[in-house]
């Protein structure tokens, strides 16, 4: 089961009154939980997703409030696309998505991941504005660049390095 920790802003946008803290479940999925927030990129809204274990992140732009109801599918599709752009193989992507057959929406609980997500949102906003706005920004390249930057909360590793280590630890035995 995938736990998607949503900020208050996102909870309100989804139309939920509130969410409970996640139950004490043993997360058996490879990547673990994700954090999500809604932020503005000029006239458009964007969703940012940040992995709790690796801080691997990506954004989905030009989000309309009506789309947010399908946030679970947006996340799964976003993970697949981001991993394809990072040149992960199809077996690696399948392995990374193992355990994501059901999605639990929950409140945010990890202040460190929440702080990283806030910093990343600001970075994405600045990068998009610097490149002339959402219409002219190369979102794919921005996401790849952001994930390749060293992260002090990861002891200087980049999110993509941590993600590759995690996925490669659990490679399926194809023999």
From TrEMBL:
Domain (DUF6933): residue spans on this chain: 3-161
What domain of life does the native source organism fall in?
A: Bacteria
In terms of InterPro entries, this protein maps to:
DUF6933
Q: What is this protein called?
A: DUF6933 domain-containing protein
- The organism encoding this protein is Undibacterium parvum
């Amino acid at each position: 089961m995938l736990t998607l920790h949503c900020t208050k802003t996102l909870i309100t946008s989804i139309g939920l009154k509130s969410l409970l803290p996640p139950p004490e479940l043993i997360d058996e999925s490879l990547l673990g939980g994700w954090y999500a927030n809604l932020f503005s990129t000029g006239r458009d809204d964007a969703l940012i997703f940040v992995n709790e274990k690796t801080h691997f992140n990506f954004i989905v732009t030009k989000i309309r409030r009506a789309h947010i109801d399908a946030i679970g599918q947006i996340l799964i599709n976003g993970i697949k696309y981001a991993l394809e752009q990072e040149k992960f193989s199809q077996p690696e992507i399948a392995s990374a998505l193992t355990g994501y057959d059901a999605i639990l929406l929950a409140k945010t609980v990890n202040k460190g991941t929440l702080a990283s997500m806030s910093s990343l949102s600001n970075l994405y906003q600045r990068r998009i504005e610097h490149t002339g706005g959402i219409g002219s920004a190369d979102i794919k390249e921005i996401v790849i660049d952001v994930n390749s930057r060293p992260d002090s909360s990861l002891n200087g590793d980049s999110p993509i390095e941590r993600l590759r280590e995690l996925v490669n630890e659990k490679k399926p035995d194809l023999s």
